[in-house]
Specification:
This protein has 183 residues and is of the alpha/beta class. The protein has one domain: TIM Barrel (Alpha-Beta Barrel). Helix content is 42%, strand content 14%. It has seven helices and six strands, in the order αβαβααβββαβαα. It is globular.
């Protein structure tokens, strides 16, 4: 409780300036941060009175290995997704030696329980995510974050951009508009 009170005490003056300047801050939901999963994200927003200047950088890679539903996060925090950061994660089946926290093994070590991988090479359901982003009306920035110890970055980054662009297909405007015209 004291940690969230301290967060609010420190951040509300910053958010006052953001409000005055028309700035929105996109916090990456990430272990070691004030908001690192669904419930801590809720608690963080509550601590600052759900101020519109504070939202989220949606990066599913940390959610995947924690067991948090990244697509559900999009719909649950629809008004708070201010940036989309595409990075994938592959979780390996448990084998009784490596814990979910990484075991202090280097990236790419096959003994790890999970690793960051290039977009489309992990467990993230990208099509579901981009459909959810379209459903909430997200039209902000989309970036690719590169952290794959097992693939050359020039090859993998270009491939990742291609996969993301392929998921950004046009919506069926007429059908979409008519589906919601009676509401």
């Amino acid at each position: 409780d004291e940690g969230y009170e301290d967060f609010a005490r420190r951040w509300n003056p910053i958010l006052d300036v953001f409000d005055a300047e028309g700035v929105r801050f996109a916090h990456e939901v990430h272990p070691s941060e004030i908001a690192y999963d669904y419930w801590t994200s809720e608690r963080t927003l509550e601590a600052i009175g759900r101020r519109p200047a504070f939202g989220f950088n949606w990066d599913p890679s940390h959610m995947i290995w924690q067991g948090v539903d990244p697509v559900g996060f999009i719909t649950d925090f629809a008004d708070r997704i201010y940036h989309v950061d595409c990075k994938d994660t592959r979780v390996r089946p448990p084998y009784g030696r490596a814990g979910i926290l990484g075991s202090h093994l280097p990236w790419g070590d096959p003994r790890r329980r999970w690793d960051f991988v290039s977009v489309g090479h992990g467990d993230m359901p990208w099509e579901d995510a981009f459909r959810a982003l379209a459903a909430i009306g997200y039209d902000g920035p989309v970036s690719v974050e590169w952290e794959d110890a097992g693939m050359d970055r020039l090859h993998g980054a270009a491939e990742a951009v291609g996969r993301i662009r392929a998921a950004l297909w046009p919506l069926p405007k007429a059908a979409f508009d008519s589906a919601f015209s009676n509401q």
